[in-house]
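Structure (tokenized):
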């Protein structure tokens, strides 16, 4: 039926983020993986070449503080969560925004640039651990983090459902343009 299209590694990462209460709260799926949410909601399939990706972009909303439900994450950080999914995940360098596993699958943590970069007091990482991923500041994402979000359930390559929280497809189209 062609339903199982989302890469299983991406789905496993999103399930772990969801289980820790991060998905839709502090982390939003952006980039190519968001297209799986759009497919599910529209009931269509996007050409395979357009959704083929060997990475995942997670937009970090640092304005939201870690709740008690995810306090355990402070001890392991995002890199610890990724290692639970696949033990081979590691940051590409110290204080990196990107982690990779042995198969070359990349996870990027991105965040918007503050209006006043000299007064930016928002945390750049989900934890205070020195080895955790730190969100890379990207100019022009402020409007994206404030855009409406949507939720959808896609099916991964193994046939299991995965919840996605992504930005509105209209904002996604403007961002890509």
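Design, position by position:
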């Amino acid at each position: 039926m062609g339903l199982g299209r989302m890469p299983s590694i991406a789905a496993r990462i999103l399930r772990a983020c969801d289980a820790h209460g991060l998905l839709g709260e502090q982390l939003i799926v952006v980039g190519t993986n968001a297209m799986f949410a759009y497919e599910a909601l529209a009931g269509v399939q996007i050409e395979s070449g357009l959704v083929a990706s060997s990475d995942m972009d997670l937009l970090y909303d640092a304005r939201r503080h870690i709740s008690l439900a995810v306090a355990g994450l402070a001890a392991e950080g995002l890199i610890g969560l990724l290692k639970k999914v696949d033990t081979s995940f590691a940051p590409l360098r110290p204080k990196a925004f990107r982690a990779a596993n042995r198969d070359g699958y990349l996870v990027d943590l991105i965040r918007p640039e503050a209006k006043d970069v000299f007064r930016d007091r928002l945390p750049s990482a989900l934890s205070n651990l020195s080895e955790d991923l730190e969100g890379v500041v990207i100019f022009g994402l402020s409007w994206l983090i404030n855009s409406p979000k949507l939720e959808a359930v896609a099916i991964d390559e193994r046939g299991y459902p995965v919840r996605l929280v992504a930005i509105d497809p209209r904002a996604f189209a403007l961002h890509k343009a």
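Reviewer-requested clarification: The mean pLDDT is 85. Strands lie at 4-6, 27-30, 55-60, 90-91, 98-100, 106-112, 136-138, 149-156, 161-167.
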